[in-house]
Amino acid sequence: MNDTITHSPVRSDTEIAELGQQLRVDSVRAAKAAGSGHPTSSMSAADIMAVLLARHLRYDFRHPELPGNDHLILSKGHASPLLYSAYKAAGAISDDELLTFRKRGSRLEGHPTPRLPWVDVATGSLGQGLPIGVGVALAGARLDHLPYRTWVLCGDSEMAEGSVWEAMEAAGAEHLDHLTLIVDVNRLGQRGPTRHGWDLDAYARRIRAFGWHTVEIDGHDVAAIDQAMTEARSHQGAPTAIIARTRKGRGVAAVEDKEGKHGKPVADPDDAIRELGGERHLRVEVQAPPEAEQPARGGGDPHTALPRYATGGDPVATRTAFGETLAALGSLHDDVVVLDGEVGDSTKAQLFADAHPERYFECYIAEQQLIGAAVGFGVCGFTPFAATFAAFLTRAHDFLRMAAVSRSRINVVGTHAGVAIGEDGPSQMALEDLAMMRSVHGSTVLYPCDANQAVQLLTAMPDRPGISYLRATRGNTPVIYGPGDAFPVGGSKVLRSHPDDQVTLIGAGVTVHEALAAADQLVADGIRARVLDLYSVKPVDTQALRTAAEATGRFVIAEDHHPEGGLADAVMESFGNGYPAPRHTRLAVHTMPGSATPAEQLADAGIDASSIAQAARTLVEVGR
Amino acid sequence: MNDTITHSPVRSDTEIAELGQQLRVDSVRAAKAAGSGHPTSSMSAADIMAVLLARHLRYDFRHPELPGNDHLILSKGHASPLLYSAYKAAGAISDDELLTFRKRGSRLEGHPTPRLPWVDVATGSLGQGLPIGVGVALAGARLDHLPYRTWVLCGDSEMAEGSVWEAMEAAGAEHLDHLTLIVDVNRLGQRGPTRHGWDLDAYARRIRAFGWHTVEIDGHDVAAIDQAMTEARSHQGAPTAIIARTRKGRGVAAVEDKEGKHGKPVADPDDAIRELGGERHLRVEVQAPPEAEQPARGGGDPHTALPRYATGGDPVATRTAFGETLAALGSLHDDVVVLDGEVGDSTKAQLFADAHPERYFECYIAEQQLIGAAVGFGVCGFTPFAATFAAFLTRAHDFLRMAAVSRSRINVVGTHAGVAIGEDGPSQMALEDLAMMRSVHGSTVLYPCDANQAVQLLTAMPDRPGISYLRATRGNTPVIYGPGDAFPVGGSKVLRSHPDDQVTLIGAGVTVHEALAAADQLVADGIRARVLDLYSVKPVDTQALRTAAEATGRFVIAEDHHPEGGLADAVMESFGNGYPAPRHTRLAVHTMPGSATPAEQLADAGIDASSIAQAARTLVEVGR
Lengths: 624, 624
Hints:
homodimer, Rossmann fold, 22 helices, about 15% strand
């Protein structure tokens, strides 16, 4: 930016109002340069942003890593021009960079992402800012005891998202008084008016009912905004929501409070800029954060023993191994936090709660808040594990998808996978989770078949980038590996092998045991079968699969999952790039299960030992 | 059941209290017979169910299809023993059948499903009953003008789910006074106490803030329950929530109001039955529904023309074809209803709103309610289309999964698919939707590449069973097919073919056009390439793929989706069962996109014409 024409810092109400106009002008300019974007949604919140920057935010843009820095989450991510204009006004980016908005290679994307060092999390899927903000605020208030404030700026349309109310409940119940939500009530959604228009009290009533303090203001009155933010900062014992009446497109008659003006540049930007008083070059001095010590991380007792299970002893559920490992990881590493979807007794996350109650966060039956909080704890440098039934992680699919855009590093565990749960029936069975978690960008997907393997994979998860997922089984499974065995991510285990193998039986989780039994059955038919445990579903062990394909020529792949997007699809990924694929048969859950015992379920789905053996016989016959 | 010992119908408060005890006893017996289940969650709501059956529900169990029948949705689906015990008391099932609970083949599954004719929708994933009930109530109130009441019985734990509050907002705003929610506040969730315990007013405050009428009662006081239900039936202009304080495991000291008793049979069922006063054989006469005429369906103007687009004329976005076709379908069929996630101007569902405003339901930015309402309209015999950006359908993943368990027939359209949207960036790009929708049991997944194809596929969707999904593109694409061309579901189109083809280029949607351009480029290299438009992603055209594999030996598959679970995985499905797979290369979106133009995005992701051509060259070289 041109520092020579930078004025003295913005201080007075009049100067702040001018800053608001500058943010509008710059939003219009950015969208004009891009040829797309959301200037009108930026203009409604410009005065709010101006007051926040000039008077209340405490943030060092040169040192975004400072622990005392406030957190600002723009939940209405489409108002990115406003955020970027604010960064310019704060001296964080240049005017030239502002005008790269939405261009290829620019870090000023259509919706904010953490490619910018001042952005905690990606937004743009509405209703996510508050749940994540709750996680950030919880981390500061309960564990790090840091003085920062978490500011979430959201739109009125997104108040319809259930995830916002999951977060309202959590923040109210946790008395997160360092969390402030500002609702930009500009009355207009994308298609037309919102449900409540400018009925500020409709929002305030709802929010107050969830245990919040609320303030209703004119969102274009600098003094009122300032007073509300001051009140929010001083209010004790409850989070504050500032509900601000604003006008979309404020300041430009051609678009102000008009329908049909969402998500597009103003038609005549030069006129608009003139109407807004022309370009300004105000520079705002954002207050420095309070001195705060970097929270110590990496403590823990390095001598803590991981659980060990006796090979060939009593069978153990991988969910049990999960709970016991989690408790040990919590002792080893003081940055591990656990988030539960009110099923900790079943997932066995409860074992962590028993050992480390202060780092266990009950999110109740609110899976979006569960993952949102995990992302928030990740922002603050913790190593979060979020766990619930794998089936119910589908509730948080959008949060998981967006967590990848946020370059978040979180660990997710889903238990009670597949038909193997038995009698509870299909509502509780995860039969889609591998497809969901594989398709998350940059994810790791692990699926142990025994307790010792689960220990090793869980221990490896926090070192992985991105979203790591472990799928666990409800029922007990035999312990087939030793406590010391290594299971590198991206690897696999050959459990049976012979030079004369005619087919490879591939399983993961419960189907590994079925594949082993099938191999035994096949001996009677004179068929030698290799057995491969594909515990690392993503990344998949391409080398081992190709070796097995070359050696045996045939695969039978069995998975406790619907046929699409799971283990078989992962296997076949290894045979792209022109590499010859083996003949193969896929066994998966093609039917809609009902209630039955686990063994009946596996048989009915055609993924038990007999089904695998029969498929292998047929396949060997075909190839003869 | 043993009719000889059936008593005279339950009428008095005392008899209803006895019926409540019978429902408890039978819940204990069912769980005992099964060896699993949720008797304690059933026992808390037994008195509520008894009063509802004996005094307020209007339902003919012999004729569940009657249009005047009330709808009863057990949102706390784990309390299935209570529901089944109620069915027994109403004479709908025998005592023998009751004791088949959770056994293989029994229609009395662990959680209710519409395998039972009296069950509208599957429950068991909490927080879904109310959103679906809102759809059922909307259909009755706004379109069918039927006198039925929709009763939703939910637990207190599930009030934490955001989906419940999406529904609260919708029901309050729509003044659905024929909808009654009963909250069974038994204080105990699965892991432990709920957030609000027995603070009935905590629930009532929140619910009232959303525009509902509320009544707080002792849920074990027959007279109080009766009075509350009477009040709910007479209250005008707003839905009523009855918030009932109850005790989990009520009536059996060993489990009553005790932690750790969730989801398991009582330890000594015979003692429990004695404590509850032993088995009873009361029969309840449920009131007949009011006479009501079956709503006329199947009307419409059969001469309505479907849109037609000129081949080779101006390019047209498939989302535009969607909107225009939807408007025509609405004229052709009066049972078509459209649900919008407040993006109708972008998805083009708005064109239906313009033509048929009375059948257009704005669900605002609340995708769980969007799909829940669609399922509810489906229950009432409508043909719902729910549409939003494909990326945001991930919010409703659990509802889509459960809709399949419900044997629901709904149509879902997701627009703005893939990196092809351009500048808006990854938060708005669906890159996981094919994986999600393919893995839904029994789904149909369609992905048109041109406007005429979109017309035909949309027209076919309502005739498909289950969940049908169409993926639409934001940008304009060339019109390559004629208006009369047929595109059967499960088919594909060969766009280029020659006996000397060395490779097949497979695309769908935007990549079809890239594949065509790639084929042109390859001519210069002396490579003949077949081009296959795989518009039916599920079911996939196995025959055509095998024919192409035999003819050309090589596939290049290009998709605007993450590599997992999408088009390439669908293609390779055709080469299971031992059928030899072709050598192939997969092109998909491996990177995390930023902002860029659509053309830049396709190039950066490596799914544009040049990338496809290069992959084909390499593959042909490998095979030589």
